[in-house]
């Protein structure tokens, strides 16, 4: 497994809000191959496309939420301008307390998928822990949604799968051909309050899980650090280095 390394820009949201182009330069200086958007911080897609080109960065994907008839045009236009074809969406813990609610979430994803499919875009579902702690008829809520929408893909968040007491290796063995993106994240797995850490410094069996992914399917390893007690860019550099040193990922 040797894949290009992207970064979920939610990780640097505070710096990006002050000066997004400067924040992207710091990401490029670390060596990242790509970036995954989570908002544009007041910049236009055209402006950011030029910034990415100048820095030698690729856009891997974007967290835009579920496509709807009201927002699909904006989602498509932004993707085309910035050059990515993967749209990420997910739901909150309160959205799937019952089996009917899980099925309703799946239906929203099915509608969103059909809206963007004609434009050459792929919809991936991003998970947290609750898709794996909510179990109905012996199946995780995550599995029910994946089974309900056969064309749906997953951006599997390794940390949250593990925190939800599921086996990331087994999930990828069964579903790997529908997981084109991996969110690689580490931390202490503390259910009373997560402490996020640079890759390789927490309790998640990252290497084992990443190596269980389908090599022909995975397109990017996407680092995300929700919060950091140390400087965020230092944490990202250490995480990037860990993937490179373990021969799991590469940069530009």
CATH architect. name: Alpha-Beta Barrel
Integer tally of domains: 1
SS elements, strand count: 13
- Mean pLDDT, nearest integer? 97
Global structural class: alpha/beta
The gross shape turns out to be: globular
Number of helices: 11
Radius of gyration: 17 Å
Give the SSE layout:
Elements: E1 3-8, H1 13-18, H2 20-30, E2 34-37, H3 45-55, E3 58-63, H4 72-82, E4 86-89, H5 99-116, E5 122-126, H6 130-133, E6 135-136, E7 139-140, H7 141-148, E8 153-157, H8 158-163, H9 168-175, E9 181-184, E10 186-187, E11 196-197, H10 206-212, E12 220-223, H11 232-245, E13 249-250
Parallel strand pairs: 1-2, 1-12, 1-13, 2-3, 3-4, 4-5, 5-8, 8-9, 9-12
Antiparallel strand pairs: 6-7, 10-11
Which short descriptors sum up this protein?
252 residues; 13 strands; 11 helices; alpha/beta; 19% strand; eight-stranded parallel β-barrel; TIM Barrel
Characterise this structure.
- With 252 residues, the chain is an alpha/beta fold.
- The protein has a single domain (3-250), classed as Divalent-metal-dependent TIM barrel enzymes (TIM Barrel, Alpha-Beta Barrel), CATH 3.20.20.150.
- Helices cover 41% and strands 19% of the residues.
- It has helices at 13-18, 20-30, 45-55, 72-82, 99-116, 130-133, 141-148, 158-163, 168-175, 206-212, 232-245, and strands at residues 3-8, 34-37, 58-63, 86-89, 122-126, 135-136, 139-140, 153-157, 181-184, 186-187, 196-197, 220-223, 249-250.
- The strands form 3 sheets. The chain has an 8-stranded parallel barrel with strand order 1-2-3-4-5-8-9-12. The protein has a two-stranded antiparallel sheet with strand order 6-7.
- Helix 2 runs parallel beside helix 3.
- The longest helix is centred in the middle third of the chain and has 18 residues, at 99-116.
- The protein is globular.
- The model has no long low-confidence stretch (mean pLDDT 97).
């Amino acid at each position: 497994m040797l894949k290009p390394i992207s970064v979920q820009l939610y990780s640097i949201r505070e710096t990006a809000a002050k000066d997004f182009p400067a924040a992207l330069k710091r990401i490029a200086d670390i060596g990242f191959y790509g970036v995954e958007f989570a908002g544009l911080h007041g910049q236009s897609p055209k402006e950011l496309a030029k910034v990415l080109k100048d820095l030698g960065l690729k856009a891997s994907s974007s967290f835009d939420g579920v496509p709807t008839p009201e927002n699909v045009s904006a989602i498509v236009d932004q993707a085309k301008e910035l050059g990515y074809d993967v749209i990420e969406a997910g739901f909150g813990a309160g959205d799937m307390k019952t089996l009917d609610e899980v099925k309703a979430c799946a239906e929203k994803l099915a509608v969103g998928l059909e809206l963007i499919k004609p434009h050459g875009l792929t919809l991936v579902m991003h998970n947290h822990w609750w898709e794996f702690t909510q179990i109905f008829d012996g199946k995780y809520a995550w599995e029910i949604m994946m089974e309900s929408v056969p064309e749906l893909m997953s951006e599997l968040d390794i940390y949250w799968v593990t925190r939800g007491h599921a086996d990331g290796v087994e999930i990828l063995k069964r579903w790997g051909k529908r997981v084109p993106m991996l969110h690689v994240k580490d931390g202490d797995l503390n259910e009373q309050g997560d402490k996020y850490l640079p890759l390789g410094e927490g309790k998640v069996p990252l290497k084992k899980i990443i190596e269980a992914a389908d090599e022909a399917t995975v397109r990017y390893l996407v680092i995300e650090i929700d919060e950091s007690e140390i400087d965020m860019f230092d944490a990202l550099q250490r995480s990037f280095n860990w993937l490179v040193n373990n021969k799991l990922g590469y940069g530009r």
